[in-house]
Amino acid sequence: xxxxxxxxxxxxxxxxxxxRYHNRHPFHRALHDGKLDRTQVQAWALNRYYYQASIxxxxxxxxxxxxxxxxxxxxxRRLEDHDGSEPNTGxxxxxxxxxxxxxxxxxxxxxxxxxxxxxxxxxxxxxxFVRERSILAAIAxxxxxxxxxxxxxxxxxxxxxxxxxxxxxxxxxFTPRLTQAPRDSDFALAYxxxxxxTAEQQTEVIGALEFKxxxxxxxxxxxxxxxxxxxxxxxxxxxxxxxxxxxA
Length: 248
Prior knowledge:
By secondary structure, this protein is an all-alpha fold. The protein has helices at residues 6-20, 26-32, 38-63, 69-83, 91-101, 106-111, 117-132, 135-141, 148-162, 174-195, 199-228. It is globular, with a radius of gyration of 18 Å. The model has no long low-confidence stretch (mean pLDDT 94). This is Pyrroloquinoline-quinone synthase. Belongs to the PqqC family.
């Protein structure tokens, strides 16, 4: 691969998002367009919880490897965003409020008993990737946040418009992400533009973003196979057939 200029590298990364980001996935389109029933929406939120809850562990593993106080301060904000500065604050708590609003038992969601196996495999692969690969690759893998503000706006408006069991309060998780994600992606993109200077480094960065897009895409593949095509694996959430999943 020929070494790209910083602008050309950024253009390549944005092309990856245009082609591979999970807003193009059929399950995601169905979610936004009101084509899912309540059980399917609940299954999406329940499975996505494991991803949300694993983000702080992913970020903490990278934080421990960052070589300067400046970088650690920057990345520490992500932990605070997701874990909060005190109990019942932060993104993970807001996601549990979302599953509460959908009528799911918080204990059941946090137990992960109803989660699809493929969700666990995909999320764990992402956590391991960030823990084991280079700092440059780990930071590049977060660049899906470049594309999240558009999908968040579309998700919130579409779900409020199409699902009478969803309120603005239910979707409160997404409001802070409209400012947090651009802030975080601006930093990550600037870091990648500065530090991916060789062909090998640029190939690594491109591969990291492709990998992260594949993680998010594969999670929706599993949801579609189980809940739209009717092939749920044993033991997973099945709506009314899983009574322990619902709040009393």
